[in-house]
Amino acid sequence: MTSSNGVPGGGVNVQGTFNSNANTAFTLDFFANSACDPSGNGEGQRFLGSAAVMTNGSGNATINANLVASASIGEFITAVATNALGNSSEFSACVLYGAADLTITKTSSSPTITAGSNVTYTITLSNNGPDPASTISVTDNLPASLSFVSCGSTASGVCSGSGNNRSITFSSLASGASATITIVARLECTVSNGLSIGNTATVTSVVRDPVSANNSSSVNFTASNPAREISPISQAFAADGGDGVVNVTAPTGCGWSAMSNVPWITSGAGGIGNGTLSYQVAVNATGISRMGTITIAGLTFTVNQSNVPCSYSILPTSNSLPASGGGGSVAVTTPAGCQWKAISNANWIVVTSGTEVGVGNGSWSYTVDPNPDTTSRTGTVTVGGQTFTVMQAAAPCSFAVEPTGKLFSEAGSESSFALITTSGCEWSPSTTDDWVFITSEESGIGPGVVSYGVRDNTTGSPRQGSITVGGVSFIIVQDGGTLADCIYVLNPVSANFNSAGGSGSVQIVTEERCAWEATTNVTWITLTSQIVGIGSNTVTYTVKSNSGPGRAGIIMIGGQLFKVKQKGG
Fold it and tell me: Are the beta carbons of 77 and 12 closer than 8 angstroms?
């Protein structure tokens, strides 16, 4: 017999060849045994069934028998031949029962792996049957360019091994079942760039595998290990010495080392992946120029140090700017290798990022913020022990009054208005009208209040005067006792605005003897023209934007209502 395995639906299939007398019928009885005897033949331990064969003229017959009874994985199958006369043969050599077609496929996480990083191998183990497989071993010996990191498996696979030689074992795997094995390894940083790295996994089982061609699988990836780079590759220093930084480019996960080759240069020890190396150059007191090197990631960084100490000059040394601010640049002149840094000593002078440091001749830039104060100011920037001075003019004073005017009856009285300005701005109120008098201080600085009064108007006619402060006029209108019979007409009498707001005007028509005052009852309407007057005139106003619901407001002029409506946003 050559093989024995299960068949779909149950039973046992036995295959092989039989040789005896020519052209003779025989009955073959098949048995299952737990073990073979010492000679390798079976015993009649458990009967499975029979099959009839007929030898040909050469005495040969082919065995392909399907038996109803079942056998178990690990049992041995043997047979006895009996002819028509009842003569029986010895038990045949035994054959292990079962067949499992195990197949294995292997993939890598990427076709290109960078040195210092991990590659993940995924191995898929499948049993195509027809029988369960048992005592299964998957072997994966990683190449020397990799270092084992981890292993995991589904279907109760057990990972074991030492170093790069890994084994994953399974007690059994049912027909039609599969398992996924994951092996993670790190690509060594010494691997050659562009090297193709292959890896093969194989599977074995104690159960016969009828197809051996699919018991192994290989996969290749390309190693990426770009050359290390440093930038810059050299630096000059004056006799004063100083500090420096070298940028190192290396694959992530790959370490690099640094070592100074002269005692007057000190540096860090190294790093991993992209990084920087800081170093220090001592003062050169030898009186002669000297050169030293640092070996960084296998590359040479050169330091050239002169015997001349650093000296610095700047041009220009100062600048005057208006209150609105501005900027400029300053040239630095110094020997090669001399380091410098521009440091602002005032928060309103900003040294432009990226220009603040340099080595040797160079320049730096700056910007100056607007001056909000009404006094001039001076600030400095220090570079290389030199001082750059910025002188900035004071902000111009501006003035406004609130309100912008007031209407009085013919009887004299007193009032006040607010003066709006910035701190430091000087002002002094004045008037050329003899019926207007100022009761507050004659002068002030910064925001303040101007108090004043008007005398009785006995002329019988309205009159207009003003108080001037900071170049702005506060308008005063006083009735002459004629308001009682004045008639005022507005044109138009209303206005509509959308949510964006806008501006408008309204004309007041009245006699030349009639004084008036304009006011509004809402904060979103602002009167922009003179708010007091005598006789016909025009009042202008603005309406703010509206993001809420629709709204309505009123401008009252001479006792007449001007209605403003605005849509919501």
Answer: yes
Query: Are the CB atoms for 391 and 378 separated by under 8 Å?
Result: yes
Mean pLDDT over 49-71 rounds to 92
Asked if residue 328 lies in contact with residue 366, where contact means CB atoms within 8 angstroms, the answer is: yes
Beta-carbon contacts of residue 212 (< 8 Å; ≥ 6 apart): none
Q: Name the percent of the chain in helix, strand, coil, to the closest 5.
A: 0, 55, 40
DSSP state of 11: -
Domains and CATH numbers, the chain: 3-96 (2.60.40), 100-224 (2.60.40.1530), 229-305 (2.60.40.10), 313-392 (2.60.40.10), 400-478 (2.60.40.10), 483-566 (2.60.40.10)
What is the distance between the alpha carbons of residues 119 and 110, in angstroms, rounded to a whole number?
7
Which residue type occupies 389? T
- Contact status, residue 289 vs residue 304, Cβ threshold 8 Å: yes
pLDDT tops 60 at residue 1: no
Using alpha carbons, select from 25, 42, 33 the residue that is nearest to residue 86.
25
CB neighbour list of residue 555: distance below 8 Å, 6 or more residues apart = 506, 518, 519, 520, 525, 527, 539, 541, 561, 562, 564
Residue that has been written with the tokens 């290109």 in this structure: 112
Residues 539-569: pLDDT tens digits?
A: 999 999 999 999 999 999 999 999 999 999 8
Give the pLDDT confidence score for residue 2 in this predicted structure.
63
Q: Is residue 206 within 8 Å of 176, Cβ to Cβ? A: no
Residue pair 76/94 in contact by the 8 Å Cβ criterion = yes
pTM of this structure: 0.57
> Using one digit for the tens of pLDDT, what is the confidence trace for 445-480?
999 999 999 999 999 999 999 999 999 999 999 999
- Gap between the Cα atoms of 149 and 171, Å rounded: 24
How many angstroms separate the CA atoms of 529 and 442, rounded?
28
Token pair in block for residue 550: 């629709």
Closest CA to 426 of 462, 398, 468: 398
| Pairing mode, strands 349-351 and 362-368 | antiparallel
- Work out the pLDDT band at 488, boundaries 50, 70, 90: very high
Q: Can you point out the beta strands (E) in 174-285?
A: 178-187, 196-204, 216-224, 229-231, 234-237, 242-249, 255-260, 265-267, 270-272, 275-281
pLDDT at residue 3, as a whole number? 63
CB 535 within 8 A of CB 558: no
Q: What is the pLDDT of residue 15?
A: 85
- Indicate the DSSP class of residue 309: P
